[in-house]
Every structure is written in structure tokens, then in C-alpha cells.
Specification:
39% helix, 14% strand
Length: 188
């Protein structure tokens, strides 16, 4: 052991919503705050970012993971101190709340609940999806399980109107990172 403190590890789980195309911004913001960042993507998000996976691995210093490893293979990522699921899609929120683990991303976050790990979800969805009866039930379930779900006006993150003209405001990566700030400080 070198005696040099290591930065706490943050897993950013990126889902297939348009803000994932700017996931490098989230990585940079987290690194500026003192996190060692590992990136895990849902399969569709990985497809969207396929051309950038090597650059994202260089940015984090870790391989970008999107699939479960083969049993017996060593894990290539250090253990996480916390997880930020951002952007979190309607699909991922609902599957996570009901305990699905059919992708690496969902497997990590469902296990994170059982581990008592600090978990923050920063959803990105439209108001029609948010109006579906499954969504508030899923948010309530995740909150009951200890997940911070930032999706109210008070959080500064609200569903957008589908097809609204003009540019959307930038995705609020900092909201999720702010919610994890106490974890980072306590681990350094």
C-alpha cells in the first residue's frame, strides 16, 4: 500500500436517452469533484455511443462495461462507493423498481439496493411517460428502497413535453452529483 488516498469510485450508469450523448460532461464534472468514475451503459446506450467507447474508456481510465462478465472472469472495475443512474429512462426506472436484472446496468443497481449503497437516479423522460401509472409507483418503490430519485420541480428536474419546439435545457448532471456530495466527502 502506498499510503496515498484513492478517490472514491462512482459508477455512472447511462441509459438510452438523448443526454447520454453528452455523458463525457457528467464524467468530467464528477472527476472535478474528486470521483474516480467508471461508466456502465445499457445495451442501447452503448450502441448509441459505439464510436466513442474507446475515448470514454480513456477519459475514465477504466473499460466501459455494458454486459455481464463470464463467470470466473475477474472484474475489471473497482468496487463502487456510489452509483448515479443518469440519464435514467422510463424503462429502467420501472424495471429497477420491480427487481429486473436482465442487463449489467440493472443488475448493478438492483444489487446496490441490497448492499445499502448510495444510489441516485436522475430521470429523463417525457411528461406522457411520467403520467403513466407505473412511473409514480416505481419512483415510490425506489424511494422506499433508499434510492434518491430526482424528478420533481423542487429537484430542478422535471419531465419534458414531447415534441416541444426549441432546444431543451441542458441535462442537470450536477443535481445528481450534488446529491452524492456527502458520500464523496465522507470517503476521502
Amino acid at each position: 500500500m502506498t499510503g496515498i488516498p484513492t478517490a472514491p469510485v462512482l459508477y455512472i450508469v447511462g441509459c438510452a436517452a438523448p443526454p447520454v450523448l453528452q455523458i463525457a460532461d457528467a464524467i468530467g464534472q464528477a472527476q472535478e469533484r474528486g470521483w474516480d468514475v467508471c461508466l456502465i451503459l445499457t445495451p442501447t446506450a452503448a450502441l448509441w455511443l459505439e464510436e466513442h467507447l474507446e475515448k470514454l474508456a480513456d477519459l475514465t481510465g477504466h473499460p466501459v462495461r455494458q454486459r455481464y462478465k463470464v463467470p470466473g472472469q475477474p472484474d475489471v472495475l473497482p468496487p463502487a462507493a456510489a452509483v448515479l443512474v443518469a440519464p435514467a429512462t422510463f424503462n429502467v426506472i420501472n424495471k429497477w423498481a420491480s427487481g429486473h436484472a436482465d442487463t449489467l446496468a440493472l443488475g448493478l443497481v438492483t444489487e446496490g439496493i441490497g448492499k445499502g449503497m448510495p444510489l441516485v437516479a436522475l430521470p429523463h423522460l417525457n411528461s406522457w411517460q411520467a403520467a403513466h401509472s407505473a412511473f409514480p409507483r416505481s419512483v415510490d418503490q425506489l424511494r422506499a428502497d433508499g434510492v434518491q430519485v430526482l424528478i420533481e420541480e423542487a429537484d430542478g428536474n422535471v419531465p419534458h413535453m414531447p415534441g416541444a419546439p426549441g432546444p431543451r435545457p441542458p441535462f442537470p448532471w450536477a443535481l445528481g452529483l450534488d446529491a452524492l456530495e456527502g458520500v464523496r466527502r465522507s470517503r476521502i
